[in-house]
Every structure is written in structure tokens, then in C-alpha cells.
Amino acid sequence: MIELQNVSFSYEGHRALNDISLKIEKGESVSLLGANGTGKSTLLKLLCGIVTPDSGTYAFDGREITQKALKDPKFSKQFHQRIGFVFQNSDTQLFCTNVFDEVAFGPRQMGYDERAVEERVESCLSLLELQDYKDRQPYHLSGGEKKKVAIASVLAMNPEVLVLDEPMNGLDPKTERWLAGFLVELLSSGKTLIVSTHNLELVQEISKRAVLFDSTHAIAADLQTHRLLDDIELLKRVNLVDKYYHRHDDGGHGHYHIHNY
Ligand SMILES: Nc1ncnc2c1ncn2[C@@H]1O[C@H](COP(=O)(O)OP(=O)(O)O)[C@@H](O)[C@H]1O
Ligand SMILES: [Mg+2]
């Protein structure tokens, strides 16, 4: 589904991705781990076509994603329908005056008639338990509610691949639990998930596979999640856990001391 070969990317001379090669199959769930500034968000943006490689190639379902390819409106529309991006900061994603229009935005852009739009919006709202929020202003919702609306608006496009940038950020523990369960459900419904996070508990819950970035913006490890989480020396080396870190064995639910994020 997704194949990166030797991809590098810089923001005006400032390196953000360094020789990244990565293959993700349909239906897989992959978590991206790494300290702040290692390139996780940039990789997610690249997967969604917000930035394109300076060198190397990115292919989505066999088709190379380049500036030129994305300039073709038909291709671009199709591509953006197939891979949906939930931004780290919901405020950059939500811009409509009410929740209904927010979730309806994508389907309307895709040219569905208003009845089909309504059906999709209703089903996404109920999936996210947002039926009572239709007329609310996204701007005034809580962080957790905004995240749900952002996810609903992306799911309304029915993407095959869902990309989430630090989805747990700023959520209370109850909403965190809910979201972890929701992502597992999405996965079992056949979606491909790619999630960046610092939340090591979430990683082991939703992804069998974890990709770790280091400070050179390269991939330091691409492993089965449990093997990565067991490699304490590696986690320390990339500053994902602090020197007081230890992993309790309490039936699969590890406890982590995460370095001030
Ligand atoms: N818009 C931008 N302009 C310039 N540099 C950026 C921009 N966004 C990110 N960077 C830099 O690129 C590197 C990777 O950033 P990012 O992908 O946001 O990392 P992460 O998501 O892992 O925290 C960092 O050094 C960051 O400072
Ligand atoms: Mg980031």
C-alpha cells in the first residue's frame, strides 16, 4: 500500500527526514515513535502528500506521489480520499461554524448529493457518539470533543488509510481509553493505521509494529512493538524514556516513565 525508498526531506535546508525506507501493507497498524523533532510529523505529512520527497520515492498503491502527480486534480482528489490525516492540533483542522458542516465538508467536496452527505455524516457522528453535537461550534468544544470531530470529518471520506499525529495529546485519561479502543475497532474493520505517539501504552495496544526515529531523522529501529519496548537501552539512547525507566510485568500492561513530554 505504502512504499518509501530512501526518502529525504528538508525544510529550507533544515533536515527533517533522512534516507527513510519503509513499507506498510494494507490493514497494518504502525506506530511511529521518537523524541520531539525527529521527523514523525514530517513523515506523516509526506504520506498524506502535504510535502513531497526532496530525494527518494514515495509510492501509494503503486503510484508515485510527486508534486506533478498531485497537480492532477482527479488523481489528487482520489489520493486524498484514500488517505486521511488527523492533525495533531485539532484547531488547524476544524474551520466550519458547526459540527455537522465540519463532518459534511469532505463528502460535499467529493460531490455527493445532499442526501448521501447527510447519511454519511449521521453514521460518522453516531460512530463517534457525537449525535448531540451537530449544531455545536467546533471552536468551543473541549480538546477531546474536537479530536472526535476531527476524526469524524476524516472518516466521513471513508479513507482506507488513517494517519493520526499524536492523537492522545491533550486528552483526559477517559478519552484516551476510548480512543485506543476506537482505533483498535477501526483496525479490525480493515483500515490501515499509521500513528505517531509518545504514548508507549497506546503503541502496544494498537500496533504490532513500531518504527523508531532517532535524532538524525533516520529510522533507528523497525520492530515488533513488544521487542522495541523490551529494548530499554535503545529507548534510553533515543531519549524516549529516562534513566529511571523500568518496565513492570503486570500482565502485559507496562508502566513507563516518559521523559517530560
Ligand atoms: N514548518 C517547518 N519549518 C522548518 N522546520 C520544521 C518545520 N516543521 C518541522 N521542522 C523541523 O523538522 C524537524 C522534524 O520535525 P517534526 O517532523 O515536526 O518532528 P516530530 O513530529 O518528530 O516532533 C525538526 O527539526 C523541526 O524543527
Ligand atoms: Mg510531531
UniProtKB/TrEMBL annotation:
Keywords: ATP-binding, Cell membrane, Membrane, Nucleotide-binding, Translocase, Transport. It comes from the Bacteria. GO terms for cellular component: ATP-binding cassette (ABC) transporter complex. Residues 2-240 form the ABC transporter domain. Gene3D superfamilies: P-loop containing nucleotide triphosphate hydrolases. It is a peripheral membrane protein. The keyword Transferase does not apply. It is found in: Cell membrane. GO terms for molecular function: ATP binding; ATP hydrolysis activity; ATPase-coupled transmembrane transporter activity. Belongs to the ABC transporter superfamily. This is Cobalt/nickel transport system ATP-binding protein. It comes from Sporobacter termitidis DSM 10068. The lineage of its organism: Bacteria, Bacillati, Bacillota, Clostridia, Eubacteriales.
